[in-house]
Amino acid sequence: MRERGVQYRRARDAEEDRPSRPPDSGLRFWQVLAVVGLIAATAGWTTAAVLALRPSPGPAVVAEASPSDEVLPSEDPSLAPPVESHSVADLEALLPADVNGTSLTRESWTGDTFLSDDSWSTSITSFLKTAGKTVADIQASQAYDATGTLDLSAGAFRVAGVGGIELRDAIIAAYKGDYPDLKLSRKTIGGLEVTNGDFGDGSVASYWYVRDNVVFDIETSDPAIAEAALASLPAPGTTGATPAPPSTAPGSAAPSEAASPSPG
What we know:
6 helices, about 260 residues, two-stranded antiparallel sheet, disordered N terminus, alpha+beta, single chain, globular
């Protein structure tokens, strides 16, 4: 993401026939995660691809496979669909199973699966290194409507031993590398203090909420859906949370999880 996030979905053209993955609704981070299934299914091909994860002034998607006599996946009826990933089941459990009566598919990954060499991933990797962590230490989960009917992707991020506020700010900073005009504001939605991210492209916004050192990223263009998704999150202390890191200075107080970065 870069064209936002890792971000948290699927490449607009390459994945259009794979309904088991979240559709491209202009949502960000999760496009790359969903492409993991595509890469696995096409292993062995020589493929050059530029994945535009959001509309941008440049080319949206360029994908070219080298000439081959191999049967294309779409022509092979025996090819199995992408297998869902459930690497961090307890983190998935922190996301809603349905919102507004729509059932959601939930998946999860570790960073060694979804981080790559794009600018968003590079920023997150640098943050992890500074925190004494590896890419495998960051965990992510996603809940989405596989039919594409509901304008929502709900994500959750966690790094054991890293505070939720610190992780949230690192995620926002990673987005700012590609979206320097990202505008932040503090909002109270359904009694929850959230950080709202306006990417200035007139579509999907992010609502970041921190609870029990887990960073929730609610992505939607509809504030009412954002409120419904936030209301569906588990109560504080639900299984899946990780302990906060100890304070580095005697007598210093940990930052409140409701605290938001200064609006930009």
